[in-house]
Amino acid sequence: MKLIEKSQYTVLKGNYAVAYGVKLARVEVISAYPITPQTTISEKLADMTATGELKARFITVESEHSAISAVIASSLAGARSFTATASQGLALMHEMLHWATGARAPVVMVNVNRALAPSWNIWTEQTDSLAQRDTGWLQIYNESNQEVLDTTILAFKIAERVYLPTMVVLDAFILSHTSEPVEIYPQELVDEFLPPYEHPNAINFDDPRAIGAFARPDYYMEFRYNIQKAHEEALRVFKEETELFAEMFGRKYDTVEEFMLDDADYVLVLAGSTATTAKYAVAQLRERGEKVGVMRIKLFRPFPVEDVRRVLSGRKKVAVIDRNLSFGHSGIFYMETKAAMYGAKDRPPIFGYVAGLGGRDIRPQDIIDIYEDMKRREEPENIIWKGVRV
Amino acid sequence: MSWAWVEVKPNENDLMHPGHLACQGCGATIAARLALKVFGKNAVFVIPASCWSVIDGAWPQHALQIPVFHTAFETAAIAATGIRAALDMKGRHDVHVVAWAGDGGTFDIGLQALSGAAERNENIIYITYDNEAYMNTGIQRSSSTPLGAWTTTTPDERPEDRPKKNMMEILAAHRVPYAATASIAYPDDFIRKLKKATQIKGFRFIHVFSPCPPGWKMASNLSVRVARMAVETKVFPLYEIEDGEVYTITHWPRGLPVEEYFKLQGRFKPVLKDPERLAYVQRYIETQWERLVRLHEASHGYLPEEARATIRSAI
């Protein structure tokens, strides 16, 4: 009997899928602060550590700022470390997100995408995580609860190969609090995939170094160069590890997912669970003979420029659907996609749609409307609002 | 004018080597050197933004012969907590995790994380070296700046008009196992408290008074003398609090008038010129001292003979 055949099949909410991923990754230090819709991750991990099901220290801190600070420190003291947050909590962590990257702490954090206040809003939107774009974290977006569990395990593997912090992102409620069938792999198989954590520059009493010491202009720039090189390496590592993961666990992920794209003239680009809705809508459009497909962005940082160009070059038109907004410019996946396509051969016109902010539903008919709107339009626009009352 | 180059060789037994970047007469540097004599090699210093972010040296050099973990301004207590958690998971129960923070990082921006770690009774030693202002950024007031003091944000025309925040009382309110004040002018007292701290489990707090010659407008050879005068004038009493309940004054001061301390420093020039203000400061010091003496008496049931002389009003 192969190890994989010992998997357990169960039904899990997205947040519990995270917790099982963390457990399978044998995390040693966890620190988190309650915030909706992340809280049930912390609760499940608190249970697991209290019963001994997971041998880890759970630090119940007084803020998200402390949660991230604790795990950066524990990571650099040699323990595999994890935190989770959302929205305001992520915004509060901002300073330390830069710190994690600069200190080369390969912590893994789950962010449950939630809209920022005011107005208070607990529902899904991607602006919280995308606003952390320039902190140097790897960012990986997810579409299903199985993918959430798988990506949590993958995130540790990738982070610990390139010594960069990694954010695993899932949608508030649509994934975090919705039950789906999930396969939980046997521990031995995950152990084979993910070796114990080691950091070459962790605190060492026999080789006492200063970690994070100040660097003058004659050294600082090289540290930054190395971080950029690590991001470039992370793109290769992501490919290698997702291949290995597919061999061992039978599920294949890539930087971008291609759905019904072989002969597609039109492409809808998006990230997160809305991709499921878009696939459903595209399947209906296909029945009507429309040549349309979906490109789902999974890896946002490092941005998979080559894959995006390969998929989008030569198409007739592209619509990017953003559940997020950079005020004063456009949706963020839109601007990133456009920037990646600049200079690409056979570049199609790219249309930017903003929809579903603050958890407003994006339904299959909305996707169909967007598709038809894009087909009708001649000139691309940066922001085409979908479903806003004005 | 001629220069003489002198090669300074580190003392093998000293865990703080020459070549650090502190100013002459820096109290925080004396404090660290004394502390390392107690902790030895099996300690890690967690240093938030503060003078000590610079003192230890610029990458790739550092003066301390123990691991140093630099962290953001408000995170000393929680970074130490994270390191403790990791070392515990790795079975390294033999090492001390020491947060080493200035007064700004302790009294102000770091207070929230400090409170969290103290309340959870994290097994760390937190030492604040107190130079009574933001010295690394060029002498701005902190909530540790004492009544009457000049800083660049409390200029001579409007000197500090609020008393120093009482951190010891805040820690006592958390019922931590051990909190103590100490001074670089009383190394025997400081070392005894450090040793005591290493023998206790849980959250331990030491508040060490560390003069800053440039920030206090005084000559760099006066650091120890000024620190001694702060104690002998009852401005900075030496005491400890166990479990937030038992108060013990560890040195009975001579009870000199506060002018004796103030006149050694330029930062108190405005208050020295204002007799009414000076009298107010002296009254404040007496009230605080009497309060502390009563807490000592309540904890031990009696007062030693030398205590009487330090009290102006009969108790």
Q: Would you give an account of this structure?
A:
The complex is a heterodimer of chains A (390) and B (315). Chain A is of the alpha/beta class. Chain A folds into 2 domains: 3-197 and 214-249, 3-Layer(aba) Sandwich (Rossmann fold), CATH 3.40.50.970; 256-386, Rossmann fold, CATH 3.40.50.920. Chain A has 12 helices and 16 strands. In chain A, strand 14 (317-322), helix 11 and strand 15 form a beta-alpha-beta unit. In chain A, helix 1 (14-24) packs parallel to helix 2 (39-51) and helix 9 packs across helix 12 (364-376). With 315 residues, chain B is of the alpha/beta class. Chain B has one domain (27-308): 3-Layer(aba) Sandwich (Rossmann fold), CATH 3.40.50.970. In chain B, strands 2-1-3-4-6-5-7-8 form an 8-stranded mixed beta sheet, with helices on both faces. In chain B, strand 7 and strand 8 form a beta hairpin. In chain B, helix 1 (27-39) packs across helix 7 (187-198) and helix 3 (76-89) packs parallel to helix 5 (111-119). The mean pLDDT of chain B is 95. Chains A and B meet through strand 3, helix 3, helix 4 and strand 9 of A and strand 2, helix 3 and helix 5 of B. Strand 9 of chain A pairs parallel with strand 2 of chain B.
Provide a concise account of the structure shown.
The complex is a heterodimer of chains A (about 400) and B (about 325). Chain A contains twelve helices and 16 strands.
Radius of gyration of chain A: 21 Å
Distance between the termini of chain B: 62 Å
Strand-residue proportion of chain B:
5-15%
Give the percentage of residues in beta strands of chain A: 15-25%
Question: What is CATH's topology name of the largest domain in chain A?
Answer: Rossmann fold
The CATH architecture of chain B can be named as 3-Layer(aba) Sandwich
**Number of helices, counting only DSSP H or I runs of 4 residues or more of chain A:** 12
Instruction: Please write the CATH class name of chain B.
Output: Alpha Beta
